[in-house]
Amino acid sequence: MASDVRGRLAIQPGDHVKLSDLPADATPGFDGKKSQAVREVADMGRELAGLQERLYAAASEGDRRRVVVVLQGMDTAGKGGTVKHVISHLNPAGCRIRAFKAPSEEEKRQHFLWRIDNGLPQAGEIGIFDRSHYEDVLVVRVHDLVPESVWSRRYKQINHWERMLADDGVTWIKVFLHISRGEQRKRLLRRLDRPDKHWKFSANDVRERALWPDYRTAYTTVLERCSTEAAPWYVVPADHKWYRNWAVSHLLLEHLRDLDPRYPPGTFDPKQARAALLRT
Amino acid sequence: MASDVRGRLAIQPGDHVKLSDLPADATPGFDGKKSQAVREVADMGRELAGLQERLYAAASEGDRRRVVVVLQGMDTAGKGGTVKHVISHLNPAGCRIRAFKAPSEEEKRQHFLWRIDNGLPQAGEIGIFDRSHYEDVLVVRVHDLVPESVWSRRYKQINHWERMLADDGVTWIKVFLHISRGEQRKRLLRRLDRPDKHWKFSANDVRERALWPDYRTAYTTVLERCSTEAAPWYVVPADHKWYRNWAVSHLLLEHLRDLDPRYPPGTFDPKQARAALLRT
To answer: pLDDT by residue (tens digit) across B110-150?
Structure first.
């Protein structure tokens, strides 16, 4: 298994990002065949499940650590597919999965991070965000939903908030699923070909696709301004679904291995407990 | 695969329940070997995942249907294990899993169904409750946490509330995981033997175990008074973990097959959409 995929995919603070220079069909850190990647995802899944149980167990004795995986990307980039194929290896009871769609009227009356805060995982849990607070500098910026004077301040606000949470025990794994414009067209056309996929398609998808260059600009700003030491972005080439699953599994695995959570010792005397139990 | 496991495990309204007459190591509806049960759970998992996707898709066009699986049982009965081995076959993005522990101070200041209401799945989702509102007539009754005049009214309140939700599209699958007192002792002792299981053990487990007869009485009342047409209880013998997983998978499968959710037709003209897409 490759090591330090994290290092190869991370954007460093201060990096200049040019998405067109990053091929969406590349497979950094992996040079085998698809079938091997699929096998490795299953293997990593087993190791991930074990690490997750230890993370969860540690929280029972006060370990505050938790993980947030942020999934962002253009329509069809595979946010849902990543949850289905990567996160499904984990114990669902320890996952907190939230899909952030357009905010409700109630949510709009709060500051933009309020609803995200509400969806955060607890100590010991792994949170998975299908879209996130970054929509407030992506779709919001592209569609002028608030004035520039408002959204342009959000990058720093996000950095400060993510930093505060990192200080409190949150490990951020922010993943940009990078697909090419041609691959998006193929995927949208496939949805039209299959009646059982029609529910995933809306006429709006075509309108959003026309704004591709604007989204590219907005994403580039996000990657450049919000890749901090506490919470870097990872650019995962996602034209190949199997590579995407492999890379996200790897990112999660490398971070959890580093956290190295431990089963807490019991707060009781096992001998005494056994004696008490045998009396019942 | 067996059919109508549901009918064999359900408590009917008006049934007299005597748990001691129901062997906890029985395997109603299944007469094969453990290995066959394990294979069938995996097969059912694939069918469940397909049905779940259709349920989720249907909600995108206004189908309000959703499912709530309630898991109750004595300590070590396998509530967590059921989530891990049965629910893990589903797409985690469509599941809403809640573990209801002792209520917080904030929750205590609301009526007892308030926090459960807050945890309900949305249309298209499958909710899984590890413990539930039934704790308010179980642990609450056994430990006299509120006066009898209060808890004794709750059975009817629960029935009315579950009925209202059933009318609104909720399918209830209420599962009592039925283990024997001897099996619980074995499982608690095993937790003491394994340091990596110590975090699951607390001295309180022994004290609760001593109240076994009181819990039996409280559960019997629940099964008798809250098995309604809209929301019957299912008693799943749970001394064999493999049977427990098989039976819960079966219950879920039979209910979802009955719901028979359908992919909604698109709300657009595929030809026009294709033409628009090819222009981008």
So the answer is: 999 999 999 999 999 999 999 999 999 999 999 999 999 99
Give the span between the Cα atoms of B148 and B137, in whole angstroms: 10
Residue type, B2: A
* Contact call for residues B60 and A199 (beta carbons, < 8 A): yes
For residue A263, what are its two tokens? 């089963």
Number of residues written out for chain A:
280
Sheet architecture: strand order including A66-73? A95-99, A126-130, A66-73, A170-178, A233-237
CB B5 within 8 A of CB B29: yes
Q: What b/e sequence results for B248-275 when a residue is b if at least 16 CB atoms lie within 10 Å of its CB, and e otherwise?
A: bbbbbbbbbeebebebbebebeeeebee
In order, the DSSP letters of B101-117 are -SPPHHHHTS-TTHHHH
**Among A169, A170, A172, A165, which residue's Cα sits nearest to residue A251?**
A172
B266 confidence band (pLDDT: 50, 70, 90): confident
Q: Provide the pLDDT for residue B2.
A: 65
The verdict on a CB contact (< 8 Å) between B92 and A88 is yes
CA distance A124 to B152: 37
- A275 has a chain B CB within 8 A of its CB: no
Other CB atoms within a 10 A radius of the CB of residue A214 amount to: 14
Domains of chain A: 5-278 (3.40.50.300)
**Amino acid type, A130:** D
Burial class (CB in 10 A: 0-12, 13-18, 19+), B211: middle
- Measured between beta carbons, the chain A residues lying within 8 angstroms of B274 are 189, 192
Residue closest to A268 by CA, chosen among B194, B204, B209, B75: B204
Q: Distance (Å, rounded) from C-alpha B148 to C-alpha B154?
A: 10
Q: How many CB atoms lie within 10 A of CB A14?
A: 7
A67 vs A120: CA distance, rounded Å: 9
User: Quick check: B209 and A91 CB within 8 A?
Assistant: no
Please indicate whether, in this complex, the C-beta atoms of B263 and A99 are within 8 angstroms of each other: no
Q: What is the pLDDT of residue A2?
A: 65
User: CA geometry: angle at A160 spanning A232 and A102, to 5°?
Assistant: 80
CA dihedral (B100, A58, A69, A150) positive or negative? positive
> Which residues is B171 bridged to in the sheet?
B67
The closest alpha carbon to B129, from B72, B45, B51, B200, belongs to B72
In chain B, residues 209-248 whose CB comes closer than 8 Å to chain A? 209-210, 212
Check: CB of residue A214 under 8 Å from CB of residue A142.
yes
Q: Which residue of B has its CA nearest to A129?
A: B93
- Whether A90 sits inside 8 A of B92 (CB atoms) is yes
User: What's the mean pLDDT when you consider all of chain B?
Assistant: 96
Q: What are phi and psi of B210, to 5 degrees?
A: -65, -20
Please give the Cα distance from B193 to B187 (Å, whole number): 10
